[in-house]
Amino acid sequence: MNEGLRTRIVLLRVLVVSLLVTLGARLWVLQVLDGDRYRRVAETNRVREVVTPAPRGMILDDQGEELVRNRSSLVISVNRSVTDRQPDQGRAVFEQLSSVIGMSVEDIERKIRFCSATVPQPCWNGSPYQPVPVAKDVSPAQALAIIEHPDRFPGVTADLQAVREYPFGPLAGHELGYLAPVSQEQLDEQEERRKKGETVESPYHLNSLVGVAGLEAVYDGALRGSDGVEALEVDRFGRVSGTASSTPPSAGNHLVLNLDRGVQAAAEQALQDLLNRLPPTGQARTASAVVLDVRTGGVIALASLPSYDPSVFVGGISEQDYKALSDPANGIPLLSRAYQGSGPAASTFKVVSTAVAMQHLGARPDQRFDCAPTLQVGDQVFHNFEGSSAGPITLHQALVISCDVIFDKFAYDEWLRDGGLRNGRGPYPEPAETFARTAEAMGFGSRTGIDLPGETAGAVVDRAEAKAIWEELKDAYCRRAQNGYPEEPDPVKAERYRQYAAEACVDGYLYNAGAAVQFSIGQGQYLSVSPLQLAAAYAAIANGGTLYKPRLAKAVISPDGKVVQRIEPEVKGTLPIRGDILQYIRDALLGVTTEPGGTATGVFADWPRDVIPIAGKTGTAEVEGKGDTAWFASFAPANDPRYAVVVSVPESGTGATYAAPVAKEIYKAIFGVGRPAELPGGLPPQDLPTVGADGAIVSVPASLTQGPTATPTAGAEAGPASGGEAGTAAAGTDQATPAPDGQPAPASPGQPAAGSGGLPAGGSQPPADGRAPP
Asked: How crowded is residue 141: how many other Cβ atoms within 10 Å of its Cβ?
């Protein structure tokens, strides 16, 4: 054998040995090092899971009435993992299905398409491997047409499924919320948690329904329960050969609310009756009401119109329905104005200004201040309501008749003490800004913390924030100053906007006197308040200074009736206001409904005030380009407060004429004035509903003590006060410069305040690019 051949043989041997070593090492890794992992994978490949959804818990009101429950429905679903593999992507199947369920092919395809940032509802937000429900509550004949002909409907199934039922339709729809299929993102997040070794309670599965709005979303973990999972062993042909494991479903817990169905229904009906009486505007009218337990922060009612019926989401919502619920022309029914909308609070905010005047500015209870017809601020004049004058009066009387000018003067003087425009050389000391700071301490400008998603924070804009807003929008102002508002059809209004933009472009950062004056009477763009925020603040005034986080949920109860969790009241803060000042404000608010000249005295003229005295404050917020927003904020009984009631009605008129009568109807329902009381004894139930082992409600709670009640005939009907909010006294109500509802917008016409250097004393700013003018 020559040397060359010997070398080749040696190399071949080395190569063979290397391959054998590599193969052996790989086998060792697969069988020894990673053996457990691959064993688990193999087990998964021969095991198929069958998931039985857990019955979802009910949502009950404070007296045990079922607001949300379950029922069985015949549902037809499409499995895209099957239809997508067909040559025509299932088009022929959809055409046959269309003739059975009476739904167009296009609607079927829209329901089963996958949701994305560019694909709106209706669409499928669940797993691509999960059957997509396309028709619910089908007839047995329709279901049998699918079941008996699987060859004609590959990928289509018909079966019984548990679906949510909302027995009272749209009642409290915003608060209850709705369900949707679990998303792939939620499944992926759950898998990541498992990989990190975290314990996942009540895990999602491909066919899970989860809460995506309202209480259904916030308390999803408690309501959903744990699905049953049966692991079936299958052979290589997919035939079941045995059961590896089986876990039965565990029903979800029930959620008991502070909300009372009867009071909620009364609030919604009173709002609807009012809206039905108002003239049409071309768009759906809106209104909202809030009822809180002042001692706990419990939400007794949270009403917003228009509302929606959550059942439209059961089985998937149609594109037409979703557009209708999102359409501004319909009032955007998906939006709750009670806690997701905000705007100027008008004269209801004067309780804050009264507290500032007495706590920080030295005003005395018996001191008199001039309620003159007007107040001159630079070159701009601020007026009382209809230019009325009451002469020298106390702050008590100023709240009763709603005098603007007194509070305007306090705000103007404080603005001067803080350095005015602060546009000189400086340096300036830190401004006290007592009006803004007190408003923030009373909960304005921050979320209340209610157990609902999507709450607005509203706005309390001080000097620093006003400058930050201007810096963000300056370029837009300057462009508008040059290019104008060509989209505005009214040339006069367009030119006015352009002038405002030109002024804001130069020195819109200045916090002028007009802005401070408007803020003190709840007007202008620098203050935006939700009805829920206002109710929480008035509840704090009523209870002596404790600001609670509003809570809809009261307790979680297991399916067999055991109390899993009591949701205790949670304090958000304490009002930085002396007790004697709070008592002074409470007395003045009682005078609003009882004293001569009180802005709500006419509304409550026939109310049994000796039994159930009501303290309140009317407000009329002027909104540029729209009708006035009526407000009424109140609490009762005034001598032993238990409930705070706030009503807001945009584009209506004065608070006394439109909002206060709605609040009166709500109080009638609570206390049983002229009708049966929705709350026995006028008090919320102290005990929880009793749930039997079978999940049925076997008893309802009763109040432990009796509250104030009135004779059935007392206060049967009362018309609105004549003469608007001012009643019969000389008073000033919310006649400062109007501003758009909750949005930055142009100031009202007028000359700039002396030394303002630009913006009118109203302090508002013009619309920037991308925002529609008012």
From this structure: 8
